[in-house]
Write a structure and sequence with these properties.
It is a single chain. This protein is an alpha/beta fold and 330 residues long. The chain has two domains: 219 residues, Spore Coat Polysaccharide Biosynthesis Protein SpsA, Chain A (Alpha-Beta Complex); 79 residues. The protein is built from eleven helices and twelve strands. The strands form two sheets. Strands 1, 2, 3, 4, 5, 6, 7, 10 and 11 form a nine-stranded mixed sheet that branches. Helix 7 runs parallel beside helix 10. The radius of gyration is 19 Å and the shape is globular. Belongs to the glycosyltransferase 2 family. It holds the Pfam family Glycos_transf_2. Keywords: Glycosyltransferase, Transferase. InterPro entries: Glyco_trans_2-like (IPR001173), Nucleotide-diphossugar_trans (IPR029044).
Amino acid sequence: MTTKISVVLPNFNGRDLLESYLPFTFKALQNTGLFFEIILVDDCSTDDSIKWVKENFPSIEIIQNQTNRGFGYSCNQGIRKATGELVFLLNSDIQLTPEYFLHQLKYFELEDTFGVMGQILKSKNSELEIGAKIPRRRGLMLKADFQYLPEKSAVNPPTLFLSGANALIDRKKLLTLGGFDEVYSPYYSEDLDLSIRAWKMGWKCYFEPSSLCFHLGSSSIKSSSSKSKIKEIYFRNRMVFHAIHLESHQLGLWKLQIFFFDVLPKLLLGKIWIVKSYQGLNRLWPEILQSRNNLYGLRTKERSIKSLREVEKEIISLIPPTSYLTGVKP
């Protein structure tokens, strides 16, 4: 039975965002009738975020990083500090609706629930930004760009992954997986990786269409990194994900696929940053091997762990027939 929710809120120079959206977070938590705590992990901000929080929300527990280590590292610090049965991973640019949690607690009555998320709408026009994700293939590559929106009456609709912006997760299961894999630092793909590891363990990630929240956008990333740097990290981490999750016998063919169908075409179009993505993948190979070994360790401990292909098939089989496809996310 759930009695407490621990909110883990990473922050980097987000003073204005905290002022705008923290009151909505408190309201949504208070409406659950449960105990709650908010753990703010500051990733070496240079603004007055911490001073403002201490003055206006003294009940919030603060962890201050001395260096900027990125999203996954900050979240892991908060996860280890959390004491609730459920951990809610929340971005500072998310505005929760008052009833956000009320439709989600029921999922944790199911023994195999890893976590659940709600709809993320664009704050400017209330259009759907992130719905329930559908897996699809391009060769050996798993794509996460298709999504669907189930009817509110749908029973336990699945999603390929839980967005790190608004994921409510079983803390014990989260700790079993070790939280986010920090190989993806500073950002991108760590939430996909975490959710796939959960699916491989036999747990499920759900999407609750009645839970709504609004997203300002990746403001902290965009303000601190150039467009080319963001693309470089995004594509590097997509490669890292596949290097970790594909079966050993698939890696050789996969390397050929990414070189000839991802790296080379972009390079011919003058997108030089893709070379840095590829170089970054190679530099991270020792950490990638460690992540693969960690998954193997879980497989040995649990005696069985699903392949990426088996996870895809399972998710597709669970999608409610009344759902409708919302298209490819730009």
